[in-house]
């Protein structure tokens, strides 16, 4: 073995989610950082998976996914977005949204290509782009300002970042970490953009069924022109409180999906057969519309409890995350504060700076931490109890 081993990702170590969860465990902190529920999937779904195992669904599934699950996905997408996908050539079941995103980036981008990421961006996108040999180009949202406590996309700035080398724009709505959702005017802007530029859209919609206050999730695939350029990615793990099952899917026009499947078949070939069979049985009966109300109650519980702290919440339109403004505690870097809160207060969070190219830069530090409210009410209440009076406790 050589003394040195060149790395394809020399700047990448453990993710911030792994790091903060490990610290939370070490400090016996309430983990409001990493985005996973602390409650089980629906009992009917667990029973469906168990029954699939007992009935012999334990060997390899077809590479593209069980036909009955692809049929269920096609029906769901048609009902939700009015877009028809062929179960034979345009839908693939993947090892979570993660594999769908990775396989799409590896299949569809090439050395010399550019991939536009909108900051703050989920931490998978840039390393996956680099592994494909392409270059990530970061376009920041406008950060919250006085009198406006939301992030906003500047589509003119996005378009100005496009070059002849731009191959793909990665979208993530409902947005992790900001909770922002797409509006009609955003789809209008995207339609105008792709009319002028021959790019693909990779749309990460893992939180598609978690939107609040009467909003409706708007996917690019709801517009015919956008759908022809879009790879739609979603996650049953997020939808059914089963992140450890790692079952997701992607939908795309046949010519695009053919390339994605070339990578998928040599990455995992196929994914867990009994999980697929159980989801296929459960999905047509699932009340997906109920999920937004379920999580809105949790968001509102966290919002109400934060009124008794110095942390000021930003508005979350979707996902199971809420950002809090921590500037009442000072101006130290977000990660430093997140570590202190974990060690000294016993509540773990995620610094929003981790979603930027360089978390240490001032442009990445807006005094914001991400809290996950996909937790039991008792967990949220315990975390809120620890956050009360934190200003005086941390000063001491």
Average pLDDT across residues? 95
The neighbouring-strand order within the major sheet is 2-8-7-6-5-3-4
Radius of gyration: 21 Å
Terminus-to-terminus distance: 52 Å
Number of strand elements: 13
Structural class: alpha/beta
SSE pattern: HEHHEHEHEHEHEHEHEHHHEEHEEEHH
Feature tags:
alpha/beta; Aspartate Aminotransferase, domain 1; 39% helix
How would you characterize the overall build of this protein?
By secondary structure, the protein is α/β, with parallel strands linked by helices. It folds into two domains: 16-41 and 289-395, Aspartate Aminotransferase, domain 1; 43-285, Aspartate Aminotransferase, domain 2. The chain is built from 15 helices and 13 strands. The chain has a seven-stranded mixed sheet, sandwiched between helices. Strand 3 (114-119), helix 5 and strand 4 form a beta-alpha-beta unit. Helix 3 packs across helix 11 (273-282). The longest helix has 17 residues, at 290-306. The radius of gyration is 21 Å and the shape is globular. The model has no long low-confidence stretch (mean pLDDT 95). InterPro entries: Aminotransferase_I/II_large, Kynurenine-oxoglutarate_AT, PyrdxlP-dep_Trfase, PyrdxlP-dep_Trfase_major, PyrdxlP-dep_Trfase_small. Its cofactor is pyridoxal 5'-phosphate. Pfam families: Aminotran_1_2. It comes from Castellaniella defragrans (strain DSM 12143 / CCUG 39792 / 65Phen) (Alcaligenes defragrans). This is Aspartate aminotransferase.
């Amino acid at each position: 073995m050589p003394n040195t081993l060149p790395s394809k990702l020399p700047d990448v170590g453990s993710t911030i989610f792994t790091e903060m969860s490990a610290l939370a465990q070490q400090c016996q902190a309430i983990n409001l950082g990493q985005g996973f529920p602390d409650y089980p999937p629906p009992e009917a779904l667990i029973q469906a998976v168990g029954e699939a195992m007992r009935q012999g669904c334990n060997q390899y599934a077809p590479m593209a996914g069980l036909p009955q699950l692809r049929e269920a996905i096609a029906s769901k997408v048609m009902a939700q977005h009015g877009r028809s996908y062929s179960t034979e050539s345009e839908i693939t079941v993947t090892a979570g949204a993660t594999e769908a995103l990775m396989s799409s980036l590896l299949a569809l981008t090439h050395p010399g290509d550019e991939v536009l990421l909108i900051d703050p961006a989920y931490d998978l996108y840039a390393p996956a782009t680099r592994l494909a040999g392409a270059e990530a180009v970061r376009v920041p949202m406008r950060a919250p300002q006085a009198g406006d406590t939301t992030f906003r996309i500047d589509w003119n700035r996005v378009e100005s970042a496009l070059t002849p080398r731009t191959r793909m724009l990665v979208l993530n709505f409902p947005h992790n970490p900001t909770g922002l959702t797409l509006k009609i005017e955003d789809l209008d802007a995207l339609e105008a953009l792709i009319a002028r530029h021959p790019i693909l859209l990779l749309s990460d919609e893992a939180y598609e069924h978690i939107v609040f206050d009467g909003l409706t999730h708007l996917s690019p695939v709801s517009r015919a022109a956008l759908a022809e350029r879009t790879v739609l990615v979603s996650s049953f793990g997020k939808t059914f409180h089963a992140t450890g099952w790692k079952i997701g899917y992607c939908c795309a026009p046949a010519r695009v999906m053919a390339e994605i499947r070339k990578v998928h078949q040599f990455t995992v070939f196929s994914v867990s057969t009994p999980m697929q069979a159980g989801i296929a049985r459960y999905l047509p009966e699932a009340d997906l519309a109920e999920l937004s109300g379920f999580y809105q109650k949790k968001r509102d519980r966290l919002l109400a409890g934060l009124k008794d702290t110095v942390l000021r919440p930003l508005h979350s339109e979707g996902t199971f995350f809420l950002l809090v403004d921590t500037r009442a505690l000072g101006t130290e870097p977000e990660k430093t504060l997140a570590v202190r809160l974990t060690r000294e207060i016993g509540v773990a969070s995620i610094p929003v700076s981790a979603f930027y190219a360089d978390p240490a830069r001032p442009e990445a530090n807006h005094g914001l931490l991400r809290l996950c409210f996909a937790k039991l009410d008792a967990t949220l209440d315990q975390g809120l109890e620890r956050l009360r009076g934190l200003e005086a406790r941390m000063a001491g």
